[in-house]
Design a protein that fits this description.
single chain; alpha/beta; 6-stranded mixed β-sheet; 9 helices; 10 strands; globular
Length: 240
């Protein structure tokens, strides 16, 4: 049985004459927290855009749970998406935002809340369901976006720079929650970031530089291979 949830195979992508991705291959195993680490402009957002079909695949293959990305309905059926830029309707309440997304997935109001009842409690959002989104702070808005992404019970959760602009406590509250989804729910996670302190030693990781994957593996094995004491020194060695 195939154990990967996401496969990138020899993917190239260009914006006109500008090469954004060059022969990118990576694999995310089921039930893992996988980090894509790179500086701004390295190609992380292009990878995210290809997985979510914001950009069309030009060359190579992308499979989600064994389904080619070109088969849009099957490939994207089981993923949840949290974009870097906010996508909530500020004029609606939290509950209305959730209802609207649920309706797009063919769920009634009752089914929508039932599908995420436990996660509402874990994210401590029970008391703000009837609050207009524009009245929420950045941390709560991001929690709502993650909650919304869980409505369709995804097998794979994609988060593009999900903690950017948040204070330290909010960042790590969200990070720890997402990690708990892997351990407790078996969800696979692609965590895209440029922040080293969000990476654990036992995380699976791909490091990207100028559109190319320069290393894929486990963080502590990477550090041992290059005889570095921490991830920052290892990263600088690989991309410097």
């Amino acid at each position: 049985m195939k154990n990967s949830i996401l496969d990138f195979k020899n993917v190239d992508y260009s914006y006109g004459q500008k090469v954004a991705l060059n022969n990118v291959s990576l694999t995310i195993e089921k039930g893992t927290f996988f980090v894509l680490l790179g500086l701004n402009g390295a190609g992380k957002s292009t990878i995210f855009s290809l997985i979510t079909r914001l950009q069309n695949l030009q060359k190579g293959e992308i499979d989600i749970d064994g389904h080619p990305i070109k088969n849009y309905s099957k490939a994207l059926r089981d993923i949840g998406i949290v974009f870097q830029e906010p996508t909530l309707d500020l004029d609606l309440t939290v509950k209305q935002n959730l209802y609207y997304y649920g309706s797009l997935k063919g769920l009634s109001f009752k089914q929508t809340l039932k599908s995420i009842d436990l996660q509402i409690k874990k994210l401590e959002l029970e008391d703000i369901l009837d609050t207009q989104v524009r009245k929420l702070n950045g941390g709560h808005r991001r929690r709502v976006e993650i909650l919304r992404a869980l409505i369709n019970k995804p097998k794979l959760l994609l988060l593009d720079e999900a903690t950017v602009g948040l204070d330290v406590k909010s960042r790590f509250d969200i990070l720890n929650y997402v990690r708990s989804l892997v351990k407790e729910e078996g969800i696979s996670v692609l965590w895209i970031t440029h922040l080293f302190d969000e990476v654990d030693l036992d995380d699976d990781i791909s490091i990207i530089k100028s559109g190319e994957i320069v290393y894929s593996g486990v963080v502590n094995e990477l550090m041992a291979k290059y005889e570095k004491e921490n991830l920052i020194d290892t990263f600088n060695f690989l991309v410097g």
